[in-house]
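Two folds, back to back.
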Amino acid sequence: MVPFIGCTSLTNITVVATNPAFASVNGVLYDKSVATLDECPSGRAGDYVIPDGVTYIADSAFQFCAELIHVTLPSSLTAIGYDYIWGDAAFYGCTSLVGLYFLGNAPLLGQPDVFTGDTHAVVYYLAGTTGWSATYGGLPTVQVAAPPANYNHISAQLLNAGQMRLSFMGNSNANYALDRTFNLKPPIDWVAQLTNLTGAGGELLLTNTAVATTNNFWRMRSVP
């Protein structure tokens, strides 16, 4: 059972530390041992990285997460769904999803409806992993090299006249927005600077002007 399925304004699930059965990590519901991902709130948007150590994604865990764009799945994952009576639908209706990035071997699938409605999604898997074919759960697959060491990190180089060159490694052929703030004390006021598309290798080089009289903090976020 997925208690909050279809609550499209729900972006975070919080579980108190004393709960004997469940836990939450970054707003997502897990079992107490954080080995099973039980539910991602339907209002979650952008990218999500499932933490290493998770072995199982429950039925309907991501169902109707219509604003998710990329999901990274750990090498520890062994199975997605198991309910052969009612179906699986773990990623059913994720209509904005464009990339599923698997870091390990192909997990077992419970039912063929795991990715129903995910018409834009592509499965990416690493060279050297096993169990993959031309499709996975009905989605096309693409083999990629292992991600670079600086994947999803921003590095900065100071240029002339206060210009900064920011180098970012993310998902291939994906849109990212650059935001800046001057203070990390909540509530953080992130201001959008520009949006650009990564290349086939996932690299994005951006040039922006830093404000020399104060701290500059940058972040990248995926956008449709």
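---
second:
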Amino acid sequence: MADVKWIKIVTDIFDDEKILLIESMPEADSIIVIWFKLLCLAGRQNNSGVFTLNGHIPYTEEMFSTIFRRPLNTVRLALKTFEMYGMIEIINDTVTIPNWGKHQSIEQIEARREYQRNYQRQYYAKQKALAEGKQSKRLEKCLDEDLDKQNINTPDKNRLDKNRKDKDSVVVNDYNPFGDPSEAPDTPQHNPLLVYAEANLKSLSYGNRNELMRFMEKLPEDVIRHVIDETCAVGVSNWAYVRKVLRSYIDDGITTMAQVEAREKQREEERRRAERNRQAQQAAEENPLARAKFY
């Protein structure tokens, strides 16, 4: 399963007729909280909205009550309400959320990433052939189409058109504003990582690309790609967030994916420990005897 840590919630969800009807019921707030907990649990599982443990054990009402930290009767009322309004379906004793794709579409994300990977391989192969002086007329046409799709209209593009008046000659340097084919990887059109960043992040400026190139001198490609992927996964998709994370990696001496994964695991453990402490404190506040012991 893809590791996607988000779900989509529309901003007018509380104007939905089903939510309005639920709000008129007893324990409305608890039922709505359980609905959002269901959505988040389904999002973490990445199982197309089907609630199973280890892929084959259906979740029971008691299991939901334990995981959501809510009374069993309240969970039963919520599930019965959701089923009545068509928000969930129970198939073979398994709770499912119909039309889960509107909350989380894994297939589209994977298809987009696969398309980008294929595009980068093809584009890099074309640019490599160009740098080696093996360009053909068909390759020239493909590169022209790529430039047009990117709305590139620069003096270099115009100069290339002028030089092509000589049908039998190929001017390799016209693709490179530095005039030296050996420097081609330093341009967004030639470097796969820069192309990847352009495809995933919003409106990279010339200065942003230069910053990314400097980060590439200090961090490996897989680390930078990971940060870009995580940024897109949380719905941010801007260079400022990526730059902040990359700088923190450099400041903390993190330069490999193994170190990145270790750091993420440590932060997850810290988050869980803080949550356990919060729950313990809440339980102590609700129980006078436990509160006396807690303090």
